[in-house]
Amino acid sequence: MAMKSLVRLSLIIIAAVSLSGCYKRRDEVIIPQHPLVGSWVLTDAAEGNSYGWQSIYTGLETGVFDFYGNGAARYTDEHVTLQGTWSTTTVTGGYYDEYGNYYNDVHEAMQVNLYDNYTHSSIDLYFDDVSFRNSRFVATYYNNNYIERYWFSRY
Fold first, then answer.
1. How far apart are the two ends of the chain, measured CA to CA in Å?
2. What are the tens digits of pLDDT across the range 56-102?
3. b vs e for 38-76, b when ≥16 Cβ sit within 10 Å of the residue's Cβ?
4. CB of 132 within 8 A of CB of 152?
5. pTM of the complete model
6. Tens-place pLDDT, residues 36-68
7. Which residue from 126, 124, 127, 125 is spatially nearest to 96, judged by alpha carbons?
């Protein structure tokens, strides 16, 4: 008799523990982590037009961009640390991809705004299109003369 009671009690405890893991608060919202959350370095930048692509130096190649899940952002290099925000938005409209091809459809745009109060330095980036691939992402911007293309890799 004692063995049957012990088995029943064990089953009840196992069931209670298993079901308690399924409880979800009504006010809790689960947001999947964005693939751009993390640390990134700018590995390549170029300007393109109908004649081809030319590498450019932006001055951002020596630092690390940190994009946090709450929308905060930071850029750090050996001279300065800038803080601010980043966001992506799903938009419909025209954009150029990393190959210079023009599209007019739904895509993801990105904005980064960083500032340092001490040095008054700032970084303000807007990308018409952002595409994520494994541990890299490419962002493009059309400035009415050239397509600017930025490749970032995980740090």
1. 62
2. 999 999 999 999 999 999 999 999 999 999 999 999 999 999 999 99
3. eebebebbbbbeeeebeeeeeebeebebbbeeeeebbbe
4. no
5. 0.77
6. 999 999 999 999 998 999 999 999 999 999 999
7. 127
Rounded to the nearest 10 degrees, how much is the dihedral formed by the CA atoms of 77, 132, 95, 43? 30
Angle (CA) 21 24 30, round 5°:
110
The amino acid occupying position 5 is: S
CA separation for the pair 2, 82 (Å, rounded): 68
Q: Residue 106 corresponds to which tokens in the numbers above?
A: 């739904």
C-alpha angle with apex 33: 27 to 35, nearest 5 degrees? Answer: 160
Chain position carrying tokens 């490419």: 138
Q: Specify the amino acid at residue 48.
A: G
Q: What is the Cα–Cα distance from 91 to 109, expressed in whole angstroms?
A: 7
Residue 127's contacts (CB-CB under 8 Å, 6 or more residues apart) are: 109, 110, 111, 139, 140, 141, 150
Q: Which amino acid does the sequence have at 16?
A: A
